[in-house]
Amino acid sequence: xxxxxxxxxxxxxxxxxxxxxxxxxxxxxxxxxxxxxxxxxxxxxxxxxxxxxxxxxxxxxxxxxxxxxxxxxxxxxxxxxxxxxxxxxxxxxxxxxxxxxxxxxxxxxxxxxxxxxxxxxxxxxxxxxxxxxxxxxxxxxxxxxxxxxxxxxxxxxxxxxxxxxxxxxxxxxxxxxxxxxxxxxxxxxxxxxxxxxxxxxxxxxxxxxxxxxxxxxxxxxxxxxxxxxxxxxxxxxxxxxxxxxxxxxxxxxxxxxxxxxxxxxxxxxxxxxxxxxxxxxxxxxxxxxxxxxxxxxxxxxxxxxxxxxxxxxxxxxxxxxxxxxxxxxxxxxxxxxxxxxxxxxxxxxxxxxxxxxxxxxxxxxxxxxxxxxxxxxxxxxx
Length: 382
Description:
Rossmann fold; Immunoglobulin-like; 5-stranded mixed sheet; 4-stranded antiparallel sheet
């Protein structure tokens, strides 16, 4: 069995489902006709953000540590040490953000924003205090400051924000190249660059997708009122790039696919490379397939043929058989079909049945006296 590499490319005007229905079964069909074994497509560097690991959940020790830090900030506020309190609250927030936002960390975050809002009021910055109190409302919807514990100034600001919309995290998603589709937890949210909002107080997965490039994604978490720029650099998809080069060559726009095919061939460790391109046929032609084969020394792949097939299971079978026959005509090895044993041949069983039928007739014929011969015998030569 010779190792071989099959690269499949579907034109952008085909839906992923339609392309898969045709392209996915073809390797198995071709492998039955040719003496080959398909190799996996060489992996490319991941488009995942390496820093987007699992966000840890705070354990009891971490929660006690955060509680102690917030308590120290409260003591500094009691002493009217604003700068020290602000610094300690910043430490507490930073540690909270290093863990997954859970029901255990939300009350601490709300407490931090509430105390920072009070500090802003002490500085005469009412608008900043309102923004921080709004974040408290988002984190603890049922909370209301106790008049017995909070001064009128705090209660007045809290009352002013009660009827305002709860803030959300706002992210500016950018990509290189731009024009990539944005998906937030699987939901499409526009095209880069774009601002997206999220109400989810917990891990959020952002993925961007652009034709000709590999998807890139990142997981992060944001609090209500956060603003951040999330940037992606999309790695090129070599198979998609190859499809674009071949499509351009078919339209007379030059070649240049040879070095890329050679790179993929070397990475896979085989000299046999086939490329299938699937696109919509003209008019009622169904789907049109182009088949290329790699050539040595970085030469552009050779177009072995193109053919239209009807959509559906029947068309897939025809496309697979045509692909195998076309590759065989290009020198790919045909599968050896074992001959059936002689005892499984029709001529053998024909002779056996004829002999048995003759024996039956011989044993039942004559009808003479009891001293007659027991019947005839038939000799069969092989």
